[in-house]
Automatic annotation (TrEMBL):
It comes from the Archaea. InterPro entries: ATP10. This is ATP10 protein. It holds the Pfam family ATP-synt_10.
Amino acid sequence: MNRTAATTEPVPAALGRVFPTLMAASLSGRVVTLPDVAEGDVSLIVLVFLESAGPIADSWSGPFAGAFTENPRVTTYLVTVVGDSLIGRSLADRIRQGLAGGVPPAQHDLVLTVPDDIERCRRAYGIDDASLAYIYLLDGRGIIRWMEKGTATPEGLTGLIDTAQGMLDPLLE
């Protein structure tokens, strides 16, 4: 088979496209694949490349999860990508250990680390600034329905929560 650039290059994450496949390890040690594991009604994926972006990620994930605490049809995943070198794997283990201490055990399957090629991931997800958090709202088929980057603003959170609620409302009828 002849491989062309079109078949070997990842397709960047974009509205209306399926979220690019991402294999990760949860804090509980489970290996998961996004968007497959995110099947359901609504999933928020908060993707960061630097440990220092944690507070930015929390600015989105905290209010979003709080708005849907009682709704089992909504899931929030926190994903940290680290390099796939020996240093990256060691860093992933350190991050995983640090996160495990601050995350309730019931949420360990929702906090993921990815020891992968950072540049490949940046291309696949259209990441231009690795110091920011990247937020993707997926429907039950893994299609990106809303996306943003950076620190949450009141307007951004309203748009995110309204979009998620709009995705859930038709399912109630």
